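Protocol step 4 of 6: structure prediction from sequence.
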Amino acid sequence: MTCFFASCKSDSAVEDCTNDAFDRGALLTNWADNIIIPSYELYVDELSSYKTAVATFVATPDIQNLEVVRTAWITAYTVWQNVSIYEIGQAELKNMRDYTNTFPVNTVLVESNISTGNYDLSLSTNLDAQGFPAVDYLLNGVGTTDAEIIAVYATNGNAANYKTYLSDVSERLLSMGNEILSDWKGSYRDIFISNDCASSTASLDKLTNDMIFNIEKVTRVAKIGIPIDFFGQPPVIAPEKVEAVYKQDISKTLLIASIQASQDLFNGKHVNSDTEGESLKSYLDELQIEAGGKLLSAVINERYDAAMTQAETLDANFYLGMQNDREKYKVTRDKIHKIIEVLKTNMISALGIKADYNDSDGD
């Protein structure tokens, strides 16, 4: 996906720049000031705490410090689910989502990088050897017991390289987060808000597409569809492809956080507050868009709520749960699909937004 920063007011885009009476600038301001920037601030804060915990663990690998760094990793990983949506601006240019959360992790490549000590995490060839999935492996998967994991960092002949790799992967997460946050708090906020028309390169159109892409590809496909082999006839379940496969009991937490983040953006809900500002919901309501005899925004929220309710019924451990009761996960996938259907058909049509990516890989 290519990122365009050109304003819709430029000569080349004037005839594509059309507006209705709704104040798109107010919506973009609410998104930027009350949702996106605060989400990045929270994300960077949690990553900073996590990075401090990594430094402590690397200095003294013991069970207490291992538990502390694991807890900090889970918190940062959960907050990441909010930030994952915003693949726009520098986040898009830097391919932040893929570098942060490509799973399953390539453990062979991780071990090769550790063994040789020769790697460049900025290269696309290392996409699946870094980010939160790599940390999952490094904190939870390099041994079968906590004692074995600690030994890898304390007494293993290659302990120094393991420590360095964990530190490097963690530092890259933090540095990427800081770079994107700094850009938003610098010039990009104003660029984002001023690009307030209706066109394929306008901020609202692009971020709405990002929101739909995230709930469709990142949430529906990657978190559920691929590991349950949705289209398999018969399906060959691949539990090793679930998110956080080595921790195993937080995949549900990450799924729910991802769905909630999407719904909160739709409703314009401020971070850590019940306040709602201008949003896709209020945009649809001002235009009085209906579906099935009720406001379209209400239909969309009902579908989000139904998906959340279904997701709550899932096992905390997706790795085992999918093998024991695939149907429950299929139903959850279908509930999420119902959200996508109404976002991609009713909503973007009503708002004059064109989908900017192809849905060809399925789940």
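Step 5 (inspection) to follow. Residues 1-15 have pLDDT under 50 and may be disordered.
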